[in-house]
């Protein structure tokens, strides 16, 4: 055990200093590095001695089963399969104790029979109450329990899916694993599902600090603070201003669960700390293979409650296109998880906020163990029942380089066979993604047996790579694809460009929030500035009378291009559409050009919006190009910086341009809500190809 002087221990354990540490990130990181050896020693001390006398027990109580491994105790309702108790480190139950015990930890989903949904409801919430409990495995090393429910064909009030919820506890493990097997059989009725998750609610009087990344962690308000008159709902129910919170430090802040959403590729560990007890409660997700819609899909995680969510499927940041739709008679099976619910603790002398770093260490351990070999379901294949796919991705763009360019940092993935970019709307199967290295080499490990297409997207280049060859991955297969070449859309050299092709609007101008509606976590965070509430209202404040005009020869997109094209609020409370103007110059040589210029427009998101393109005449009707109404991502209201990716190519006749000043007008005309609008990823105007050959 390492020893520290009393003034250091006081510095890292006093509550007031903990809060000060959060504001002094620079030397906080240095202090963490200084304490790293101490942290490792403590985590090692937490591990159980293999020679200890601890035993794994399964106990039956009235309406419950209890699994106890000597480190913690898990209580599950029998036969429903709800998580009703977690006893750990002297805390009788870390879960919420208010309300019904079945409201503490549960799997649930939202579903509908097609055509049954009303405008006032998202669907039927099903808490997945099992009807049968079965011990699958019980030995000295592990216990696995199944809580299942079989669909009854005579029922019209339960989702036509067989569901088997599993819980696994290992000897000497400080936490439990959970996964679920969903299955539809042939001949069953059509159904729609738009949300599947595992939700756990913690004791609000204990767990006061939330961490979802190194930069995004803070002390959190209480759920009571959101309830009137302490809280005031804002433009929608999820966003609440805290007028009279129990802890004064949160006064006037805005709390909204969507301010804490995360991309699937980044959801590895998140959770809560009870700072008084020095206890952490974490959800660790070693793989995102079972989540819908690829690595960039955004999901909720932890938020005020204190709530910890494992969301496997949702329509957030995509909309109705991601509702799971099953046709009449369609069979389907999918395993969601396992995820690991991990508990850790430190002695009271150590800063409890360091529990986050120990949880990250455990995450690395879980990732190395993936795919787990202890699950007993044949529906979850171990590593020797999976395959590997590798290769190298290069980019060919003759207008940038005469040589092929390594696809450095590209995301390369396997998903169900489909069309270009279909992975971002795919939800019935599994997806496997890998990030290519500096030379474009990639290796996709632990792929389930199945039939896949290969997909990729490359930072710095528009569009999607799609290899429409159907790859059959079988147990133990090792498929080497060699060199693959992506040719991004391009017809000619660049005349001008706005933004960076990275599928987000993060590089554009993001305004400061209204000081009356802030989340203090993001006040000094340039990377998360867009997560503040109400930024859509700032456009009308910055452009009260006329819309944005951008001169490609003068302006800087990081300062002069507002990051979302939204509606403008009128004095009477209504809204108007908006038209943005892009100005650019041509010399006299333009009169000698023939053919079409190509306007590339990549959208980072769209919500019930339409994009119309006009050239040098803002009033011409019909416009040169229109998308029609597209998107229901709701990214604007949910503090996002991207949703679904859209790419459009517009032919601009050379005859429509002339020497001197020219303008392209981008109009978003639909305007019944403040949340309608677009975010641009990147815009480029290309010369006709003939210019390249002439030069």
TrEMBL record:
<dbReference type="InterPro" id="IPR029413">
    <property type="entry name" value="RG-lyase_II"/>
</dbReference>
<dbReference type="InterPro" id="IPR029411">
    <property type="entry name" value="RG-lyase_III"/>
</dbReference>
<dbReference type="InterPro" id="IPR014718">
    <property type="entry name" value="GH-type_carb-bd"/>
</dbReference>
<protein>
    <submittedName>
        <fullName>Probable rhamnogalacturonate lyase B</fullName>
    </submittedName>
</protein>
<dbReference type="Pfam" id="PF14686">
    <property type="entry name" value="fn3_3"/>
</dbReference>
<keyword id="KW-0456">Lyase</keyword>
<dbReference type="GO" id="GO:0016829">
    <property type="term" value="F:lyase activity"/>
</dbReference>
<feature type="signal peptide">
    <location>
        <begin position="1"/>
        <end position="43"/>
    </location>
</feature>
<dbReference type="Pfam" id="PF14683">
    <property type="entry name" value="CBM-like"/>
</dbReference>
<dbReference type="InterPro" id="IPR051850">
    <property type="entry name" value="Polysacch_Lyase_4"/>
</dbReference>
<dbReference type="InterPro" id="IPR008979">
    <property type="entry name" value="Galactose-bd-like_sf"/>
</dbReference>
<dbReference type="GO" id="GO:0030246">
    <property type="term" value="F:carbohydrate binding"/>
</dbReference>
<dbReference type="Pfam" id="PF06045">
    <property type="entry name" value="Rhamnogal_lyase"/>
</dbReference>
<keyword id="KW-0732">Signal</keyword>
<dbReference type="InterPro" id="IPR010325">
    <property type="entry name" value="Rhamnogal_lyase"/>
</dbReference>
<feature type="domain" description="Rhamnogalacturonan lyase">
    <location>
        <begin position="408"/>
        <end position="479"/>
    </location>
</feature>
<feature type="domain" description="Rhamnogalacturonan lyase">
    <location>
        <begin position="494"/>
        <end position="685"/>
    </location>
</feature>
<dbReference type="InterPro" id="IPR013784">
    <property type="entry name" value="Carb-bd-like_fold"/>
</dbReference>
């Amino acid at each position: 055990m390492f020893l520290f002087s009393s003034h250091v221990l006081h510095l890292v354990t006093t509550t007031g200093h903990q809060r000060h540490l959060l504001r002094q990130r620079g030397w906080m990181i240095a202090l963490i590095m200084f304490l790293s050896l101490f942290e490792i020693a403590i985590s090692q001390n937490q591990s159980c001695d293999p020679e200890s006398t601890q035993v794994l027990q399964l106990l039956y109580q009235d309406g419950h089963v209890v699994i106890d491994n000597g480190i913690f105790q898990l209580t599950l309702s029998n036969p429903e399969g709800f998580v009703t108790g977690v006893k750990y480190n002297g805390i009788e139950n870390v879960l919420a104790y208010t309300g019904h015990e079945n409201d503490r930890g549960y799997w649930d989903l939202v579903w509908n029979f097609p055509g049954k949904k009303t405008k006032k409801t998202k669907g039927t919430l099903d808490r997945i109450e099992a009807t049968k409990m079965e011990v699958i495995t019980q030995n000295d090393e592990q216990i696995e329990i199944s809580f299942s429910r079989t669909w009854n064909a005579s029922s019209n009030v339960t989702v036509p899916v067989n569901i088997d919820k599993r819980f696994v506890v290992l000897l000497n493990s400080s936490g439990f694993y959970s996964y679920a097997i969903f299955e539809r059989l042939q001949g069953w009725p059509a159904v729609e599902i738009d949300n599947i998750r595992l939700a756990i609610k913690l004791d609000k009087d204990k767990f006061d600090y939330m961490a979802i990344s190194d930069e995004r962690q803070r002390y959190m308000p209480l759920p009571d603070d959101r309830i009137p008159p302490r809280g005031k709902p804002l433009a929608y129910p999820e966003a609440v201003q805290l007028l009279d919170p129990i802890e004064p430090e949160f006064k006037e802040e805005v709390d909204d669960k969507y301010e804490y959403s995360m991309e699937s590729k980044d959801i590895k560990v998140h959770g809560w700390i009870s700072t008084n007890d020095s206890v952490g409660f974490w959800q660790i997700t070693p793989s995102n293979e079972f989540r819908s819609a690829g690595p960039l899909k955004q999901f909720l995680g932890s938020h005020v409650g204190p709530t910890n969510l494992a969301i496997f499927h949702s329509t957030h940041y995509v909309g109705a296109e991601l509702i799971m739709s099953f046709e009449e008679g369609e069979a389907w099976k999918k395993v969601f998880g396992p995820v690991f619910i991990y508990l850790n603790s430190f002695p009271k002398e150590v800063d409890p906020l360091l529990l986050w770093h120990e949880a990250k260490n455990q995450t690395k351990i879980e990732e190395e163990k993936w795919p787990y070999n202890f699950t007993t379901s044949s529906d979850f294949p171990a590593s020797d029942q999976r395959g590997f796919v590798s290769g190298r991705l290069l980019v060919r763009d003759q207008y940038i380089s005469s040589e092929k360019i390594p696809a450095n940092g590209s995301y390369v993935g396997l998903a169900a066979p489909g069309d270009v970019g279909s992975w971002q709307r795919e939800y019935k199967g599994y997806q496997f993604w890998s990030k290519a290295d500096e030379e474009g080499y990639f290796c996709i490990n632990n792929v389930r047996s199945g039939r896949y297409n290969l997909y990729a997207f490359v930072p710095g280049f528009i569009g999607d790579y799609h290899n429409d060859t159907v790859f059959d991955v079988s147990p133990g297969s090792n498929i080497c694809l060699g060199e693959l070449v992506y040719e991004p859309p391009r017809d000619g050299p660049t005349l001008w460009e706005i933004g960076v092709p990275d599928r987000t609007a993060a590089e554009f101008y993001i305004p400061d929030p209204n000081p009356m509606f802030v989340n203090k976590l993001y006040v000094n965070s340039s990377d998360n500035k867009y997560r503040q509430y109400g930024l859509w209202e700032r456009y009308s404040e910055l452009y009260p009378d006329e819309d944005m005009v951008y001169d490609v020869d003068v302006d800087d997109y990081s300062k002069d291009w507002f990051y979302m094209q939204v509606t403008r609020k009128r004095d009477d409370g209504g809204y108007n559409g908006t038209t943005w103007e892009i100005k650019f110059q041509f010399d006299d040589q333009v009169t000698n050009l023939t053919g079409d210029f190509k306007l590339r427009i990549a959208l980072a998101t769209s919500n019930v919006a339409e994009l119309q393109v006009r050239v040098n005449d803002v009033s011409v009707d019909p416009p040169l190009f229109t998308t029609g109404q597209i998107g229901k991502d709701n990214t604007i209201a949910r503090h996002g910086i991207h949703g679904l990716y859209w790419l459009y190519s517009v032919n601009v006749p050379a005859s429509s341009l002339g020497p001197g000043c020219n303008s392209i007008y981008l109009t978003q005309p639909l305007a019944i809500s403040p949340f309608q609008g677009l975010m641009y990823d990147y815009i480029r105007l290309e010369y006709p190809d003939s210019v390249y050959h002439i030069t």
